[in-house]
């Protein structure tokens, strides 16, 4: 049974789509130079440092701040955020904020603020790129696109459930989808 269509582009980034109650994830999240990743080397570290310099925050708030910055198109996992926060703390760029909260909030140290001052242009360019990421995604993530992709995924799902997907039928479907992709590319 086909539970989700999963295509990979030339960068290896996943483009998933499906019917009702399926997730939609359109393509690469970063760009060509980052091989489909949202952040290049050291960029997440710099974003987190800037965000805690703006105001003390804990991990969940940082995840939400990045999600808001990218207009919902990217939400980092705790498995990405917390190790980076630990690295920043070990480097002395951030420290636990004073307070009796149950969650560990961080704030930038003098060393962290100094680094941000030294790298101000880089930080500005990075935040500009991230804020434009959601705008770029909106250009093709329209309700009509979701409906059309949902229709395709629904047909594939129903066909798979019918038990009528022999090897040749699967190859015919793959050929049709590949041909459609070529036609769309030529538009």
Write structural notes for this entry.
The protein has 187 residues and is mainly α. The chain folds into two domains: 5-26 and 141-186, no CATH class; 33-138, Arc Repressor Mutant, subunit A (Orthogonal Bundle). It is built from seven helices and five strands, in the order E-E-H-E-H-H-E-E-H-H-H-H. The chain has helices at 43-54, 59-69, 78-91, 110-118, 120-138, 143-161, 167-186, and strands at 5-8, 14-17, 57-58, 94-96, 105-108. Strands 3-5-4 form a three-stranded antiparallel sheet. The protein has a two-stranded antiparallel sheet with strand order 1-2. Strand 4 (94-96) and strand 5 form a beta hairpin. Helix 1 crosses helix 3 (78-91) and helix 2 (59-69) packs across helix 3. The longest helix is centred in the C-terminal third of the chain and has 20 residues, at 167-186. The radius of gyration is 21 Å and the shape is elongated. Mean pLDDT is 76; it is low at 1-35. Residues 48-117 form the Transcription regulator PadR N-terminal domain. InterPro entries: Tscrpt_reg_PadR_N, WH-like_DNA-bd_sf, WH_DNA-bd_sf. This is PadR family transcriptional regulator. It comes from Qipengyuania qiaonensis.
